[in-house]
Amino acid sequence: MQKFRKIDVMKTIYITISFLILLISCNSKENKVIQDNNHESTLKHESPIDSVRLANDLANKPKLFLKFWRDMTKREFDTVVKILIRENILQDDYGIIKYLVPKCGSYKLKPLFVKDSLRALELSAESCIYELYKAKYNLPNLIEEPLVEARYAEINTEYAPSLTYLSNEGEIKLPECFIDKSSYPTVISGCQKIPIVDDGGWTDDVLPKSPIVIKKENQVISFSQSFKRDEPSISYSLTHNPAMQKFITELGIFGRTDEIENAISRNSKYKIKDYHKFSVITVTYESEIDYNNRIQKEVKRTKLLQQEYNRQEKEKQERNRAVQNEL
User: Would you state the pLDDT for residue 82?
Assistant: First the structure.
């Protein structure tokens, strides 16, 4: 009887294992069918004709920049981007396409389409990559300009001068450099513009002129410049005092405690707001045809604006003469 029980148990185990093998086999076949269907779906998007045409365009089309050509579609652009990413020429930084330049960094690459046709490519640039362009195309040097564009002062409403402060060691006496002798008589209320006496030596590299244009065969590379302005940085009038600057330097990084910072702000008569101007250089690659069309449109637009300005000035003059007669 015990022998038959062992046989029944072995049968049960055998049947269970067989069932599991059959189930796994079915699942594998089903997964393979799904994968094959997905692959077929992908192939439908990239037909052999498209692949042949794309390969031909990559080999023979005149290029604007890298492997991109004028009039390519957005779909073709995306395909070429994937190729260049595999070649470590571009990278996809969370949806932003960037051009990789060894020893310089990565630079945003932006396509400009008209409907579904590529017309130009814009590459963000700065001094490092500009040096590469300068060496290749004999471009002029960048020039240094102060980073601080404007400085304003306003009354410090928290001004409460005191040459002592409390610490864990007791009452600490402050040196005379904490006596604010600065004076801006015109600063009564609100912000008033003041001269930039010291700017900390911070500078920015800017183009000597904008735009700079390089014309090649059927292609134009232009360097243009714009400026961005961030929120103003806040400091206090005492920090612009040479004696205070010397004191802070002698303290070092670790000696500039919160108590010292609070003492500087409390003993300063004015809050100082510095407005910075940052250069943004853009390199545009486009065909000679599109460049000429763009310039013609800009010239036409400038001419229309000038005509409108002249018309308004003429109306003002006529109105002024009429007022003279009316009085």
Answer: 94
Tell me which of 253 and 142 has the higher pLDDT: 142
Residue 188: phi, psi to the nearest 5?
Answer: -110, -50
User: Do 214 and 221 form a contact (C-beta atoms < 8 A)?
Assistant: yes
Q: Would you state the structure tokens that stand for residue 122, as one six-digit string?
A: 């814009």
- CB 127 within 8 Å of CB 165: no
User: What order of strands is seen across the sheet that includes strand 148-155?
Assistant: 192-194, 148-155, 270-276, 233-236
Q: Using CA atoms, how far apart are residues 171 and 165, in angstroms rounded to an integer?
A: 6
Query: What dihedral angle (degrees, nearest 10) is formed by the CA atoms of 12, 15, 17, 21?
Result: -170
Chain center to CA of 162: 44
Query: Cβ contacts of residue 54 below 8 Å, gap of 6+?
Result: 76, 79
Question: Which backbone phi and psi does 126 adopt, to 5 degrees?
Answer: -150, -170
Rounded alpha-carbon distances, angstroms, from residue 205 to 59, 162, 242, 279: 38, 42, 27, 7
Q: What is the CA radius of gyration of the chain?
A: 35
Q: How far, in Å, are 286, 297, 306 from residue 294 at the CA level?
A: 10, 5, 18
What is the C-alpha separation between 24 and 312, in angstroms, rounded? 83
Rounded (5°) CA angle 323-326-327? 90
Q: What average pLDDT does this structure show over 38-56? A: 59
Select from 93, 123, 114, 116 the least CA-distant residue to 289: 114
